[in-house]
Write a structure and sequence with these properties.
Layout: H1 2-17, E1 19-23, E2 33-37, H2 44-52, E3 58-63, H3 72-78, E4 82-84, H4 91-102, E5 106-109, H5 127-135, E6 139-144, E7 154-159, H6 173-192
Helix pairs in contact: 1-2
């Protein structure tokens, strides 16, 4: 119920403050998935939660530092966000993420692990690939234009076709790194598509 209230608040906020165009909602699969997008603004998750709506609840991953922030910390806890201690092998975060996928939920992950200014790129991390492979679930690429940084601007959100990563046996580190790079290329291609113009 709390999540539904937050979605309503987000939708009202976006209706008042932005002009949002969403393409590709038909690509959202039922059931578990790892939703991966670019991250150029602090409130990018707001647009993705708006796009996925009530039917497809998102469980965002967030840096552990946000847990202790005065206002946002308690809110994120109520939303059942997965807090991640970046730069470490956070077993607690991995276990919680796998539990969400097993229960049919959708994780929201930013493969680059941090905000990256538009036009720049950072090396994609293995986390999203690892979770998708272990969970046997599809990846859903999403691109959001950076208009979200400016109130009353136009924001375009493109949801790409879901896809699964096929492996034989335990994938190597090189394999995971290559698939992480391919994932970011897929996301950025959505940004270059006519739907994002």
């Amino acid at each position: 119920m709390f999540y539904k209230v937050i979605v309503v608040v987000i939708k009202v906020f976006i209706f008042i403050c932005y002009r949002v165009e969403i393409t590709g909602r038909e690509n959202i699969p039922d059931g578990a998935a790892v939703v991966c997008g670019n991250h150029t603004a602090q409130h990018d998750p707001v647009f993705k939660i708006h796009a996925f709506g009530f039917r497809h609840r998102l469980y965002p991953l967030s840096k552990v530092e946000n847990r202790t922030k005065k206002i946002i910390g308690p809110l994120l806890k109520r939303l059942d966000v997965v807090f991640v201690d970046r730069g470490k092998s956070d077993l607690a975060a991995i276990k919680k993420s796998m539990r969400i996928l097993k229960d049919g939920g959708k994780l929201l992950i930013y493969p680059e692990g941090t905000r990256v200014k538009e036009g720049r790129t950072a090396e994609a991390k293995r986390g999203a690939i690892m979770l998708a492979v272990r969970g046997g679930v599809p990846i859903v690429p999403v691109f959001v234009t950076s208009g979200g940084k400016r109130p009353f601007s136009r924001v375009k959100l493109v949801i790409g076709a879901p896809y699964k990563i096929e492996t034989e046996g335990r994938p190597s580190g090189d394999f995971m790194d290559a698939k992480a790079s391919e994932l970011m290329e897929t996301i950025l291609r959505l940004g270059a598509s006519p739907c994002a113009k």
